[in-house]
Amino acid sequence: MNKVRKSEIPWTRLDDLQRMILEDLLKQYRIEELSEEEKIDWAHVWRRLKPWPDSVEGLTRLKRKYIVLPMSNGNVALMTNLAKFGGLPWDVVLGSDLVQHYKPDREMYLSAPFYLDLKPDEVMMCAAHVDDLQAVRSYGLRTGFIYRPNEYGGGPVEVPDKAKPGEFDVVSASIVDLARHLGT
Q: How far are the Cα atoms of 125, 143, 149, 172 from residue 166, in angstroms, in the given order?
């Protein structure tokens, strides 16, 4: 994504970037026996990620009062398939391919207010990443932090972000907790 953001390569959908990475890995490890169908299946593995255990319940509660959508670096097809696979109750899908930018580009963050015909301060982005929320806040959107202790698999590679009450508009322990904070 950074190569796209830095104009080192032309705009490329996330599904296609993942296929490029897969092709590089197959060459690196001299794996030659995969069929085209198997390569597509591997490149589309993100479409089959299981949601966090609280996601469906929390998003369903939020949907009673709010428009619920992902603001994702994933493309529309990836995110639509992800929703179908995981039972995610999104109202609409916004993907990076609609604006041909990746977060943290301004165009990506402002796509939700634009496509929903809302003012930036009428949109809240919720995430487990402090940098993402700080960037989106700089463009006038509201922010909701969701703590994910296992964001990086619970291993020693990276430590999940934490936020203190007041650091963002809402700081929550889960999506269900976020829904409670927002009155749903």
A: 16, 11, 19, 11
